[in-house]
Structure to design on (261 residues):
């Protein structure tokens, strides 16, 4: 969910499902930063050099700011080439700062985070509107049938719903097609910034992720063998070569003897 950042024209979206991800937009561009827990902690300590508190307490303060960017003391932004610096300050009985350096995102990221969700919401609103209009028109048909049977109502009847008049009230909204193309609604785009993390970074500073490297069939054996193994291979191959040479020599000698006779 996008929330407005206090006293700015920017909106912020935050997630901590795996790493700490922050997206900021002004609906013209998008900036992002993704920090593992240890780097996030270091960012908080660098932002609050005079504060000394437990790591969990510091993280909770930062999460509170990111979750409610409008409920803070103040915010400052500095846009530079391909980057955005966002500083948010909140009072917890003491001043706590969160300084984030975000990188400008790609067009694909802007589409995934901004354009496509907006289009999907518009389509959902249009579908809901069509359903409500149909219900209202059915209601008018039921009232009309009741009138033909002579049934009366003690309460005041509503005005007959006029769909065309209703639609003309919001011209800008209805310039959008009733059915937006599925090629846009369901389009799958891979942004360069999208990274799937197998497992969060461990707290001791080392990664628990193990990388399995598959050797190619044509890879050279000397890249992986030790000196001792190479020596063993050499020793194993030498007797074979000697046996082949001795066999060939014996055959040649037999041929020479036959020729002499």
């Amino acid at each position: 969910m996008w929330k407005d950042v206090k006293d700015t024209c920017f909106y912020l979206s935050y997630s901590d499902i795996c790493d700490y991800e922050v997206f900021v937009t002004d609906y013209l561009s998008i900036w992002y930063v993704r920090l593992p827990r240890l780097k996030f902690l270091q960012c908080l300590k660098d932002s609050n050099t005079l504060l000394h508190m437990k790591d969990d307490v510091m993280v909770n303060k930062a999460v509170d700011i990111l979750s409610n960017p409008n409920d803070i003391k103040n915010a400052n932004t500095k846009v530079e080439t391909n980057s955005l610096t966002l500083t948010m300050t909140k009072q917890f009985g003491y001043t706590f700062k969160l300084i984030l350096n975000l990188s400008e995102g790609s067009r694909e990221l802007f589409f995934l985070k901004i354009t496509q969700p907006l289009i999907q919401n518009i389509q959902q609103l249009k579908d809901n509107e069509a359903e409500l209009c149909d219900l209202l028109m059915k209601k008018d048909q039921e009232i009309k049938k009741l009138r033909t049977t002579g049934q009366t109502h003690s309460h005041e009847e509503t005005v007959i719903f006029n769909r065309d008049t209703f639609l003309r009230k919001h011209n800008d909204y209805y310039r959008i097609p009733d059915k937006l193309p599925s090629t846009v609604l369901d389009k799958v785009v891979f942004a360069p910034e999208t990274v799937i993390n197998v497992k969060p970074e461990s707290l001791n500073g080392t990664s628990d992720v193990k990388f399995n490297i598959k050797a190619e069939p044509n890879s050279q054996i000397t890249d992986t063998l030790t000196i001792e193994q190479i020596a063993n291979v050499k020793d194993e191959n030498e007797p074979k070569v000697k046996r082949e040479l001795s066999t060939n020599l014996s055959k040649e000698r037999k041929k020479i003897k036959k020729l002499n006779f």
In short: The chain has seven helices and seven strands. The chain has a mean pLDDT of 76. The helical segments are 37-47, 55-67, 107-148, 163-168, 171-174, 182-185, 227-260. The two ends are 102 Å apart (CA to CA).
